[in-house]
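FW: tagging you since you asked about this chain on Friday. Here's the raw sequence from the shared folder, copied in full. Didn't touch anything.
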Amino acid sequence: MSMGFLGIQMAFGLQNGNASRILANFGAEVDKLSWFWLVAPITGLIVQPIIGHLGDNTWGKFGRRKPYFLIGSVLCAVGLVALPNSASVTQMMGANVLLLAVIFLAMMDASINVAMEPFRALVGDMLPKSQGTVGFSVQTILIGIGAVIGSNLPTWLSNAGVSGVAPEGFVPDNVIYSFYIGAAVLVLSILYTIFTTKEYSPKELAAFSEQKFEIEENSKFTDIFKDFKNMPSLMKKLGAVQFFSWFALFTMWVFTTSSLATHHFGLSPEDTRSQQFNDAGNLTGVLFGYYNLFAIPFAFLLIPIANKIGKNRTHALALLFGGLGLLSMYFLDREHLWMSMLGLGFAWASILAMPYAMLIDAIPANKMGIYMGIFNFFIVLPQILNGIIGGPLVKFLFQNHAIYYVSLGGICLIIAAVLVLMIPQPKPNTGKEIKQVHF
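HL: got it, structure written out here
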């Protein structure tokens, strides 16, 4: 059921580990990188609630969620092939290479959102609430495997002899071929889920969830705003936790390459084309692969830990370790940075599972898709804010030494850990309406 997540996160890992490097290869300055990355959260803000609303209220011949998997995977695969080749496309079209790269990046992000949001909702559709933690933990395991492969592909290909250096203004072959492989795996894994998973009918969902389940035939897009107004209080409290968590993650994804280049490789902030800068980019991919790899065993541990101490305390512990991991990147030398990824792996495993496992206790089955989409607001809004202020802060406050901003991300994760401890353990929702849920 969740196998498609492997391909989605392989694409996500390729993007996170290489987008900043690719944009820098095309001439983007360090303090402007976060502005280019704004396309990711903005597309998520727009796309996910719409897809969730449509998925809740449409049911076609091919199912409720599966059509979105397929459309998203095909469009994302096109973006994966096109992004690293933006310079070549520019030569044919005469367009601005950075503008074209941002368009392809936006296409990838929108498509990933089209495919990813229904996967979250599918777990809520197909599993009883008591198995929510298990379901999202399985997704986390597949996410880890896909992201490890995606993050490390450029380095593996470089070690296999594929060129890791390109002429000025172009992307190295090891990165380009990695994106080709990612596109193929994405489409194949999504097709596997489509052909091996049978979605429940509305009647089956009604019996399964013990709630009245109806497809709203006259539903309108304005209903999204009504649902937003009536969101459960638990979602609002989790929203604050998500805000600081994803502010930190966005900081890490955007600025790790620049942090390594200046703090660990001793390069000037202006050096974005040397072999050492590309080495820093490769190391970023390796480190991102490590935290995703470490997330896999932690995903197995989340279930017994949560059963022992509760979901909120488990998530708080994981976020604390993640914050310490980001802070430690300033103090550790290059050879020991993998140790920072241990804490981040624990945090990443929990971020991908625990908030959703806590959330589904408060959401009725007929609103699973839209509320998963609305919950995404608390993921994309901190990224948008970070994208706007991150570059100027790095430039004017930290003199383009991004390692200090990454450390600030660690502090944000610790704040998130404190906030999640303030959330009481939720009771499962078996009522018919959201207004009946109180926390």
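FW: The domain at 231-427 is CATH 1.20.1250.20 (Growth Hormone; Chain: A;).
HL: agreed, and The chain has two domains: 1-199, 231-427.
FW: great, closing this out.
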